[in-house]
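pasting for the record
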Amino acid sequence: RPYYSEAKYNLGIALYKLGRYEEAVERFKEVVELAPWWDDAHYNLAMTLLKLGRREEAISELEATLKINPLHRDAAEALNSLKAP
């Protein structure tokens, strides 16, 4: 169901932009379940989790992003800043 996951992803982005972070997290979680290979879905889930102060979960999602795509610069930068002392 690639179109279904894309629709959920786009809804997550829209909810994030509206500041509806809890709802955005739910949509992004659905996307990563439907399409676990989608690096940007993991990344956007991480960024949304950070908005909610859920740091450890965000780190896990950033690590998942980089496992899928080691060249994802935004994820690498975010992870480095979260792990910095």
